[in-house]
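Recall that a protein's primary structure is simply its ordered list of amino acids. Everything else, from secondary elements to tertiary packing, is in principle encoded there. The following example makes that idea concrete.
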Amino acid sequence: MIVNLSDPTVNLANVLSLNETAAELWREFRDRDFQPSDLSAWLCAHYDVDAPTAQSDTNRLLDTWREAGILVI
């Protein structure tokens, strides 16, 4: 679970819940700069997933993180 505490008006009712894979990606990449391709490559290296699927899943995940305000571009 992730809560954006950088927003002084944070509403704790709006909490982002992550599945196991998304949580692993968050832990792996949260404290460093990365490109979407880094996440896709990580998924391919750790799961039985082809590159196009990993890229699609990465894009959807990053869109979710952007919408939640937890991803700084």
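Residues 51-68 form the longest helix (18 residues). The chain has a mean pLDDT of 84.
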